[in-house]
Amino acid sequence: MASAVSIRPRVAMRPAPGFRSGVLDAADSGTRELLEDLLSGDMKTTGAASVTASGARALSKNATWLPAGRTCPGRSSVCYGADHLQCYAAVLERARPGSLARAADRRLAIWDDALAANKGKELAFELLKYVWDRQLSRGITRPTFRLHASGDFYSAAYATAWDIALRLAGSGLYQWVNRDHGPIPLTTWTYTRSYGSVAGDIAARLLDAEGAPAPGFTLYLSSDESMVARTRNAVEGRYHRLPVAVMADDADHGADLLRQIRGTDTRRTLVCPVDSGRMGHVVESRGETVGACYKCRACLPVSGIDSAPDIIFPIH
Ligand code: SF4
Hints:
The protein is of the alpha/beta class and 316 residues long. The protein has one domain (29-314). It is built from eight helices and 16 strands. The strands form five sheets. Strands 3-6-7-10-11-12-16-13 form an eight-stranded mixed β-sheet. Residues 1-22 have low confidence and may be disordered. Iron/sulfur cluster (SF4) is lined by residues 270, 272-274, 292-293, 296-299, 311.
């Protein structure tokens, strides 16, 4: 079992509904069970996948999945069809109400309990440590963490908890050192619509005075054709350091939307190879079967937020 150099002292907390332990530490089996519940397998981003006759699946969990829509205060009109949410996450939750949707509800309850107990930042930080250690234990040498394969920063308290945890993780105070592999950072990223007045600018809580998110954390402004004005205002103001991920009909449509958003202040742009059909959700990399993002890493630059490209996601 790989082991991290962990922060001490342990974080003591009062038991709250949904918590099975009074101590939030991954050395405790109740906490490990809780952290495991918070994670979701994500085929596109996982560092270990398998392909069988029944399809591909993630062997290593490296993402979170909160209830679609309910945890998305910045959802747009494109997120809705005629009368209901039509994003991929909502479609999957409707197809699997007893498993996927119920697990998402459970995760939201855990976060709400932690925030009510003023332990959100501790829970977030323990989750970062846990997901890092768990991947190394599987032999995954470049561990990643995708916040919100479904859902978003749904409250100011929740966003602040993640900001504190991610800044501690990226501060150098916590050393991502593994006994077997030496220093290995955890790379984290997400896409958010929790910006602009419609979302109460919750995502601004993840930025410092210079407009940067935590070191090692890439925060994308997610957008679509119904959000051009909102995203343009964002990148012209508080969110000027952040890259944009735009959902579009195709690459040309995406490039046009980015022109409307950025004007002449352009940024390097890539079309997601998966959503444009050039790469499968699961691929081979160095003899291993992994999620596409684990190999591609365009959205996970190690050289800082300013080097992250804008991404076009062609949604067919
Ligand atoms: S561009 Fe690359 S890293 Fe970003 S979502 Fe697509 S496959 Fe993943």
